[in-house]
Amino acid sequence: MRLTERKNLFLMLIALPLLFCSCGSGDDSLPTKEENDNKGEEPTIIVNPVTDLKGEETQNANELKVTWQNPKDPRLIRVELSYALLTEGTENEPLTQQVNATSGSKGSFLLKLAQYGNYEISAVAIDNYGRRSEKVTITATPSKTGFVIDWSALADSCTYVLIEQFMNKNKGTFWKSPKDISGGSFNIYWQQAHAMDVVVYSYERIKDENPDLANTYKRYFKLWFENKANNYHHSASDETGFLNPFTDDMCWICLTMIHLSEATGMIHILIWLKRSMINISLLEHGQITKAQDCHGRPKVMEEMPVQTLRVV
Hints:
Blueprint: H1 3-24, H2 33-38, E1 51-57, E2 63-69, E3 76-85, E4 95-100, E5 106-112, E6 119-127, E7 136-140, H3 151-166, E8 167-168, E9 173-174, H4 190-206, H5 211-226, H6 247-264, H7 267-282, E10 283-284, E11 287-288, H8 303-310
Antiparallel strand pairs: 1-2, 2-5, 3-4, 3-6, 6-7, 8-9, 10-11
Helix pairs in contact: 3-4, 4-5, 4-6, 6-7, 6-8
Protein backbone atom coordinates (compact mmCIF):
# COMPACT_ATOMS: atom_id res chain seq x y z
CA MET A 1 0.00 0.00 0.00
CA ARG A 2 1.30 3.33 -1.00
CA LEU A 3 2.13 5.96 1.51
CA THR A 4 -0.62 8.24 0.27
CA GLU A 5 -3.29 5.56 0.53
CA ARG A 6 -2.17 4.68 4.04
CA LYS A 7 -2.37 8.34 5.02
CA ASN A 8 -5.93 8.73 3.71
CA LEU A 9 -7.06 5.52 5.46
CA PHE A 10 -5.60 6.78 8.72
CA LEU A 11 -7.42 10.12 8.46
CA MET A 12 -10.71 8.37 7.68
CA LEU A 13 -10.39 6.10 10.75
CA ILE A 14 -9.93 9.17 12.92
CA ALA A 15 -12.83 11.13 11.34
CA LEU A 16 -15.49 8.39 11.52
CA PRO A 17 -15.78 8.28 15.37
CA LEU A 18 -15.97 12.08 15.50
CA LEU A 19 -18.73 12.06 12.88
CA PHE A 20 -20.78 9.51 14.84
CA CYS A 21 -20.43 11.52 18.10
CA SER A 22 -21.59 14.73 16.48
CA CYS A 23 -24.63 13.05 14.90
CA GLY A 24 -25.71 11.46 18.20
CA SER A 25 -25.71 14.62 20.41
CA GLY A 26 -28.79 16.92 20.81
CA ASP A 27 -32.41 16.38 19.71
CA ASP A 28 -32.85 16.74 15.99
CA SER A 29 -36.36 15.23 15.92
CA LEU A 30 -38.99 17.04 13.82
CA PRO A 31 -41.48 19.30 15.69
CA THR A 32 -44.93 17.87 16.40
CA LYS A 33 -48.17 19.33 14.98
CA GLU A 34 -49.08 20.73 18.40
CA GLU A 35 -45.75 22.53 18.66
CA ASN A 36 -46.21 24.03 15.20
CA ASP A 37 -49.77 25.17 16.12
CA ASN A 38 -48.59 26.86 19.34
CA LYS A 39 -45.90 28.94 17.64
CA GLY A 40 -46.91 32.66 17.68
CA GLU A 41 -50.13 32.07 19.68
CA GLU A 42 -51.14 34.91 22.08
CA PRO A 43 -51.65 34.01 25.76
CA THR A 44 -55.26 33.42 26.87
CA ILE A 45 -56.84 36.51 28.50
CA ILE A 46 -59.04 35.69 31.49
CA VAL A 47 -61.81 38.08 32.63
CA ASN A 48 -62.00 37.98 36.39
CA PRO A 49 -65.47 37.48 37.88
CA VAL A 50 -67.33 39.83 40.19
CA THR A 51 -67.03 39.20 43.92
CA ASP A 52 -69.19 39.71 47.00
CA LEU A 53 -72.45 39.28 45.06
CA LYS A 54 -75.46 39.90 47.35
CA GLY A 55 -79.22 40.23 47.04
CA GLU A 56 -80.95 42.09 49.88
CA GLU A 57 -84.62 42.87 50.45
CA THR A 58 -85.79 46.49 50.51
CA GLN A 59 -88.63 48.14 52.41
CA ASN A 60 -90.91 47.42 49.44
CA ALA A 61 -92.51 44.10 48.59
CA ASN A 62 -90.93 42.02 45.79
CA GLU A 63 -87.78 44.11 45.47
CA LEU A 64 -84.16 43.02 45.74
CA LYS A 65 -81.15 45.30 45.82
CA VAL A 66 -78.33 43.40 44.11
CA THR A 67 -74.78 44.55 44.91
CA TRP A 68 -71.32 43.31 43.93
CA GLN A 69 -67.66 44.27 43.64
CA ASN A 70 -66.36 44.77 40.11
CA PRO A 71 -62.97 43.21 39.25
CA LYS A 72 -59.98 45.50 38.73
CA ASP A 73 -59.70 45.32 34.95
CA PRO A 74 -59.39 48.42 32.72
CA ARG A 75 -61.09 46.50 29.91
CA LEU A 76 -64.26 45.92 31.97
CA ILE A 77 -67.32 47.66 30.50
CA ARG A 78 -70.41 45.95 31.91
CA VAL A 79 -71.89 43.25 34.10
CA GLU A 80 -74.68 41.01 32.91
CA LEU A 81 -77.22 40.12 35.58
CA SER A 82 -79.63 37.24 35.08
CA TYR A 83 -82.35 36.19 37.46
CA ALA A 84 -85.11 33.60 37.57
CA LEU A 85 -87.74 32.45 40.02
CA LEU A 86 -86.91 29.07 41.49
CA THR A 87 -89.95 26.83 41.14
CA GLU A 88 -89.92 23.18 42.15
CA GLY A 89 -90.20 20.93 39.11
CA THR A 90 -90.03 23.85 36.65
CA GLU A 91 -87.04 25.58 35.09
CA ASN A 92 -87.93 29.20 34.43
CA GLU A 93 -86.25 31.18 31.67
CA PRO A 94 -83.98 33.80 33.29
CA LEU A 95 -84.35 37.49 32.56
CA THR A 96 -81.19 39.51 31.90
CA GLN A 97 -80.11 43.04 32.62
CA GLN A 98 -76.97 44.77 31.32
CA VAL A 99 -75.36 47.14 33.84
CA ASN A 100 -72.50 49.50 32.99
CA ALA A 101 -69.44 48.78 35.10
CA THR A 102 -66.20 50.50 36.10
CA SER A 103 -63.01 48.72 37.06
CA GLY A 104 -62.71 48.11 40.80
CA SER A 105 -65.89 49.94 41.75
CA LYS A 106 -69.01 48.81 43.58
CA GLY A 107 -71.93 47.81 41.41
CA SER A 108 -75.64 47.74 42.26
CA PHE A 109 -79.02 47.27 40.62
CA LEU A 110 -82.58 47.27 41.96
CA LEU A 111 -84.62 44.29 40.78
CA LYS A 112 -88.39 44.88 40.73
CA LEU A 113 -89.76 41.36 40.65
CA ALA A 114 -93.10 40.21 39.29
CA GLN A 115 -93.90 37.99 42.26
CA TYR A 116 -92.69 36.82 45.63
CA GLY A 117 -90.39 33.79 45.85
CA ASN A 118 -86.83 32.54 46.00
CA TYR A 119 -84.71 33.81 43.09
CA GLU A 120 -81.49 32.62 41.53
CA ILE A 121 -79.31 35.58 40.57
CA SER A 122 -76.15 35.37 38.46
CA ALA A 123 -73.56 37.95 37.41
CA VAL A 124 -71.02 37.81 34.57
CA ALA A 125 -68.31 40.43 33.99
CA ILE A 126 -67.76 41.38 30.33
CA ASP A 127 -64.81 43.27 28.82
CA ASN A 128 -64.64 45.50 25.75
CA TYR A 129 -63.87 42.52 23.48
CA GLY A 130 -66.99 40.69 24.62
CA ARG A 131 -64.99 38.19 26.66
CA ARG A 132 -66.97 36.86 29.60
CA SER A 133 -65.96 35.84 33.09
CA GLU A 134 -67.13 32.82 34.97
CA LYS A 135 -70.70 33.12 36.27
CA VAL A 136 -71.20 33.91 39.96
CA THR A 137 -74.56 32.76 41.33
CA ILE A 138 -76.51 33.34 44.55
CA THR A 139 -80.10 32.92 45.74
CA ALA A 140 -82.14 35.63 47.47
CA THR A 141 -85.72 36.22 48.61
CA PRO A 142 -87.45 39.64 48.66
CA SER A 143 -89.80 40.91 51.33
CA LYS A 144 -93.31 39.54 50.86
CA THR A 145 -95.25 42.52 52.23
CA GLY A 146 -92.66 45.29 52.61
CA PHE A 147 -91.74 46.97 55.86
CA VAL A 148 -94.50 48.55 57.95
CA ILE A 149 -93.39 51.97 59.15
CA ASP A 150 -94.45 52.90 62.67
CA TRP A 151 -95.29 56.54 61.99
CA SER A 152 -96.10 57.25 65.65
CA ALA A 153 -92.69 56.01 66.75
CA LEU A 154 -91.05 58.05 64.00
CA ALA A 155 -92.97 61.17 65.08
CA ASP A 156 -91.97 60.58 68.72
CA SER A 157 -88.32 60.30 67.70
CA CYS A 158 -88.40 63.51 65.64
CA THR A 159 -90.13 65.47 68.41
CA TYR A 160 -87.60 64.21 70.95
CA VAL A 161 -84.70 65.40 68.78
CA LEU A 162 -86.38 68.78 68.20
CA ILE A 163 -86.76 69.39 71.94
CA GLU A 164 -83.38 68.00 73.00
CA GLN A 165 -81.38 69.81 70.32
CA PHE A 166 -83.29 73.03 69.60
CA MET A 167 -85.33 73.98 72.68
CA ASN A 168 -84.15 76.23 75.46
CA LYS A 169 -85.98 74.28 78.17
CA ASN A 170 -85.62 77.09 80.69
CA LYS A 171 -87.68 79.38 78.45
CA GLY A 172 -89.69 76.98 76.33
CA THR A 173 -88.46 78.74 73.18
CA PHE A 174 -86.30 77.49 70.34
CA TRP A 175 -82.83 78.21 69.01
CA LYS A 176 -81.90 78.56 65.35
CA SER A 177 -79.21 75.85 65.57
CA PRO A 178 -78.63 72.74 67.74
CA LYS A 179 -77.81 73.86 71.29
CA ASP A 180 -77.54 77.41 69.85
CA ILE A 181 -74.08 76.49 68.64
CA SER A 182 -74.12 79.18 65.95
CA GLY A 183 -75.66 81.87 68.16
CA GLY A 184 -77.87 84.58 66.72
CA SER A 185 -81.14 83.19 68.08
CA PHE A 186 -82.23 86.51 69.62
CA ASN A 187 -84.53 87.39 66.69
CA ILE A 188 -86.00 83.96 66.01
CA TYR A 189 -89.73 84.79 66.24
CA TRP A 190 -91.98 83.41 63.49
CA GLN A 191 -90.01 80.16 63.60
CA GLN A 192 -91.18 79.76 67.20
CA ALA A 193 -94.72 79.22 65.96
CA HIS A 194 -93.84 76.39 63.59
CA ALA A 195 -91.50 74.66 66.05
CA MET A 196 -94.04 74.82 68.89
CA ASP A 197 -96.79 73.51 66.60
CA VAL A 198 -94.80 70.26 66.28
CA VAL A 199 -94.80 69.87 70.07
CA VAL A 200 -98.52 70.70 70.28
CA TYR A 201 -99.33 68.01 67.72
CA SER A 202 -97.22 65.55 69.68
CA TYR A 203 -99.06 66.52 72.86
CA GLU A 204 -102.42 65.82 71.22
CA ARG A 205 -101.24 62.38 70.14
CA ILE A 206 -99.65 61.17 73.41
CA LYS A 207 -101.56 62.97 76.18
CA ASP A 208 -103.77 59.97 77.04
CA GLU A 209 -101.18 57.22 76.82
CA ASN A 210 -98.25 59.15 78.33
CA PRO A 211 -99.56 61.72 80.84
CA ASP A 212 -96.13 62.37 82.36
CA LEU A 213 -94.69 63.48 79.02
CA ALA A 214 -97.87 65.45 78.32
CA ASN A 215 -97.38 67.40 81.57
CA THR A 216 -93.78 68.13 80.57
CA TYR A 217 -95.05 69.51 77.26
CA LYS A 218 -97.61 71.68 79.08
CA ARG A 219 -94.81 73.14 81.17
CA TYR A 220 -92.97 74.07 77.94
CA PHE A 221 -96.18 75.65 76.59
CA LYS A 222 -96.51 77.82 79.70
CA LEU A 223 -92.87 78.94 79.49
CA TRP A 224 -93.18 79.67 75.77
CA PHE A 225 -96.24 81.83 76.40
CA GLU A 226 -94.71 83.65 79.40
CA ASN A 227 -91.56 84.43 77.39
CA LYS A 228 -93.65 85.86 74.53
CA ALA A 229 -92.37 83.25 72.06
CA ASN A 230 -88.97 84.99 72.06
CA ASN A 231 -90.38 88.20 70.62
CA TYR A 232 -87.35 90.42 70.19
CA HIS A 233 -89.32 93.63 69.57
CA HIS A 234 -90.54 95.30 72.74
CA SER A 235 -92.60 98.47 72.73
CA ALA A 236 -93.73 100.46 75.73
CA SER A 237 -97.21 100.69 74.23
CA ASP A 238 -97.46 96.91 73.76
CA GLU A 239 -99.60 95.40 76.51
CA THR A 240 -99.40 91.92 74.94
CA GLY A 241 -95.66 91.45 74.54
CA PHE A 242 -96.21 89.74 71.19
CA LEU A 243 -96.54 92.75 68.88
CA ASN A 244 -93.92 92.90 66.15
CA PRO A 245 -93.26 95.08 63.08
CA PHE A 246 -93.76 92.02 60.88
CA THR A 247 -97.48 91.30 60.52
CA ASP A 248 -96.90 87.83 59.11
CA ASP A 249 -94.80 86.87 62.14
CA MET A 250 -97.67 87.80 64.42
CA CYS A 251 -100.12 85.84 62.26
CA TRP A 252 -98.17 82.61 62.70
CA ILE A 253 -97.77 83.20 66.44
CA CYS A 254 -101.51 83.82 66.78
CA LEU A 255 -102.39 80.64 64.90
CA THR A 256 -100.10 78.59 67.14
CA MET A 257 -101.71 80.09 70.24
CA ILE A 258 -105.15 79.15 68.90
CA HIS A 259 -103.90 75.60 68.30
CA LEU A 260 -102.33 75.55 71.76
CA SER A 261 -105.54 76.65 73.50
CA GLU A 262 -107.66 74.11 71.61
CA ALA A 263 -105.25 71.23 72.33
CA THR A 264 -104.77 71.93 76.04
CA GLY A 265 -108.07 73.52 77.02
CA MET A 266 -106.16 76.59 78.19
CA ILE A 267 -109.04 78.85 77.21
CA HIS A 268 -107.49 81.86 78.89
CA ILE A 269 -104.96 81.98 76.05
CA LEU A 270 -107.70 82.22 73.44
CA ILE A 271 -109.65 84.80 75.46
CA TRP A 272 -106.53 86.88 75.96
CA LEU A 273 -105.71 86.52 72.28
CA LYS A 274 -109.12 87.73 71.10
CA ARG A 275 -109.25 90.63 73.52
CA SER A 276 -105.78 91.96 72.99
CA MET A 277 -103.53 90.85 70.21
CA ILE A 278 -106.06 90.34 67.41
CA ASN A 279 -107.98 93.49 68.25
CA ILE A 280 -104.85 95.59 68.66
CA SER A 281 -102.62 94.42 65.86
CA LEU A 282 -104.77 92.88 63.16
CA LEU A 283 -108.06 94.77 63.21
CA GLU A 284 -108.63 98.39 62.37
CA HIS A 285 -112.15 99.64 63.04
CA GLY A 286 -113.52 96.13 62.69
CA GLN A 287 -111.78 95.54 59.35
CA ILE A 288 -109.00 93.04 58.76
CA THR A 289 -105.68 94.65 57.96
CA LYS A 290 -103.52 93.54 55.05
CA ALA A 291 -100.52 91.42 55.96
CA GLN A 292 -97.40 93.44 55.35
CA ASP A 293 -93.73 93.53 56.20
CA CYS A 294 -91.93 96.25 58.17
CA HIS A 295 -91.67 98.37 55.02
CA GLY A 296 -95.42 98.29 54.41
CA ARG A 297 -95.12 95.94 51.43
CA PRO A 298 -98.02 93.46 51.03
CA LYS A 299 -97.32 89.80 51.79
CA VAL A 300 -99.92 87.81 49.89
CA MET A 301 -98.84 84.46 51.35
CA GLU A 302 -99.86 85.55 54.84
CA GLU A 303 -103.41 86.60 53.88
CA MET A 304 -104.75 83.12 54.71
CA PRO A 305 -103.65 83.11 58.37
CA VAL A 306 -104.91 86.68 58.72
CA GLN A 307 -108.35 85.71 57.38
CA THR A 308 -108.36 82.63 59.63
CA LEU A 309 -107.77 84.80 62.68
CA ARG A 310 -110.63 87.03 61.61
CA VAL A 311 -113.20 84.28 62.21
CA VAL A 312 -111.79 82.92 65.49
